[in-house]
Amino acid sequence: MFTVRLLGLLFALFVVRAQQPIPHLITLPPFQHSQTCGNAENNYRPCIAKNVANDAFAACCKQYLPPQCYRLCQYETERGTAAQLLIDAVKVDGCGLENTNQLLYCASQNHNNRQCCKDLGLADPFLQVGDHCLRMCDVSFREWRWRSDPLQQHWETGRVSWEGKKHSIDNLSRQDLVCLANWNVIMYCHHGGLKEDWS
Known about the structure:
Helices cover 39% and strands 3% of the residues. A hairpin with a 6-residue loop joins strand 1 and strand 2 (154-156). It has one domain. The chain has a two-stranded antiparallel sheet. The protein is mostly helical. The chain has helices at 2-19, 50-64, 79-91, 100-108, 114-119, 175-181, 183-192, and strands spanning 145-147, 154-156.
């Protein structure tokens, strides 16, 4: 029930905001490969080409998320497109917001990107949510469990137990509407957090 209400509020936020320009927290720089990338000195410009990063993101999503959420498994950094992807995935495809943790885990590839999100304004007092949105920039989960079912032996995280983890996103609140409205910034930071030597 809360998910439906949250979706309604999110949809209303984007529809109302679409009629009134939303001030960008940042202007995201275009992808440009360079020797120095993914750090504050170059505004967290991604090191990995978007198509390669999207392939890795999608592969992780296929492992941990239901098919209804696959639409979100891309590093979309254009504000309007990112907002529409989020709305369509939830409203049209039926991706439940309870999948946020697993989705962000795949986006971050288990890296902590809080500093990028902080530097790009997601903890700005203007947002009036403190550092609440920074939890979407680090859902790193380093406690793995071996699934012993012989038919499905693999390491798993997504559906095991995220409860009680420091940055776990088990429940979404009204404050999260602000975070979701800045989905493009969160995706930019997760893309920028990928390094060329990752596997």
